[in-house]
Amino acid sequence: MTMTRIEVSKTYKLFINGAFPRTESGRSWPITGKAGDTFAHLCLASRKDLRDAIEAARAAQPKWQAATAYNRGQILYRMAEMMEGKRDELAQAISAVPNGPLAPARTKSAKRPASRTSSLRLSVSPSLSPAAEVSAAIDRLVYYAGWCDKYAQVLGCHNPVAGPYYNFTVPEATGVVAAVAPDQLPLLGLISLLAPALVPGNSTVVIASNTNPVPAAVLGEVFATSDLPAGVVNILTGKRDELLPHLAPHRDIDAIFAAGLSASEAQMLREGVAENLKRVQIHDVAAIAAGEQGQSLEHIRGGVEFKTIWHPALA
Amino acid sequence: MTWRSPTVDTVMVGERAASFTKRSIKNATKRELLTLALSMLDLTTLEGKDSPEKVRGLCHKAMRPFERDEQMLGVRLPSCGAVCVYPSLVPTCVEALGTSRKVNIASVATGFPSGQYPLEIRLQDVRDAVNAGADEIDMVISRGQFLAGKFDEVAEEIRAVKRACQREDGSYAHLKVILETGELETLDNVRLASDIAIQAMDDVTPSGTGDGNIDFIKTSTGKVQPAATMAVTLVMLESIRDWYLKTGKLVGMKPAGGIRSAKQAVHYLVMVHEVMGPLHAGPGGSNPWLTPHYFRFGASTLCNDILRQLVRLKTGKYVAGYDFSEA
Question: Quick check: A283 and A275 in contact, CB under 8 A?
């Protein structure tokens, strides 16, 4: 007689400070699959999980920035390697859950100049097969891995001054970056925001896609085995409408990268940061999906501060 | 003299201490407790690299923990209980804190942190600190003597230090006896050392608190791990409680080292409330250990975490570590 084997299904948890804690709130988040059944139960991250993640990120940041650019590049490349090993699981996580709506919901209350509004609108439908999305995300990590020991040469400069001085401008990490992944392209969108933030030595807190947060939950397992120091990447699976209001006013976040936000969400972030002058970059999902345009030095520039140094020159 | 103390049930003390961390504290209460904890702080710097500049900064922080308190919190926060420094920096504190000072000067002495110096040198250390203007002396016991079972010697040293705390006008500097519980191995030892310290201090000034002299027992130097824990503090509070029940006299308590977060501070205050509150030992049945007179926290990073939480409670926004001056 053979016994029917009961499948052992995975418990998805948050990824904070290199560990996989459950949410402090004790809440779970059932994710409906394509067949209408429950595909997974995720942790529904709370404000306090966000607080913990930011504290972990703040603590981890100086060491990550102090790592050599070469080493950071190696680790980003390692992340790509480990993703390659998990590509089936990632593709399945993407395909098992219906993709988000084509265009994010808009509210008319947000008044923006016409030219800026058009830049937010989706011009291309970002549709990729799950396997192609995983490949694109891995390639994107490799792309940014290469930039780690090069971006400073391109963004930095030696400034001409009238006097016996050298005058250098060098880019440095801005600190803790919050990345808000779009509803569509739950994996590529996330990596496109996360990877450029890591390049100069920022630590990050990621809020996963809200229509399909499962790939983000899998990513934590990838990053935990990528030689990435604990706390440099923290991944929260939680509702944007709960977590987003706490990002802009939190003084320990230095920049916010987001994609595919609704106009009202974008407005909330921009108004929130007016008080503490942190940087907020809100991208169009389609622009991030597009192969060559989705990745550029400009994304790295969003996460750096420029430092200018005077140094006496020998006559 | 034969020293005898009640035995301690290590497991149950651990359980009971842990239970104090599981109370639901409402925001209004939390605000009160954090403000109280701030006033109980012995803002401490005990490093070889302490300079007069650093100590001056610490003194200003102790007098006004948060410069923008009225602007951001709508209230003027209390000053800290004391600054705690090495004896050589006491004159700097006297100068920085001014004449009409609200913040006491605590000085570690007796060859802190090891205490492994000849007795005469340790006593001179105390006299120098008192003469320089220290209001409170934090002494270390000889753990080596204690572990060797020489309890009478330990008690006699504490008596000698207490006598050395006497100023020329006859008044005494407050004495805090550091047991260094991290080196005492067992909670039974912690209880015994607490009882010895309390008895020895009382032998010198048996009139108790009437003359404004307050004796403390303190957990740790902060130089040894583990430093203050809830369990150790509970055992020491029980010793203070039993002494009060026996004699009616009040002894202060100072956990020090390892208390870094506002949440931990709240846990300690919950413990003080539940263990000492039912004694109704203060005026009008109040709890004297919930005042800076009889309870202190030896800490430095705790200060800014308390301030962070107070701002967060008031504004709903999280603040960055660099929003506050260094402690």
Answer: no
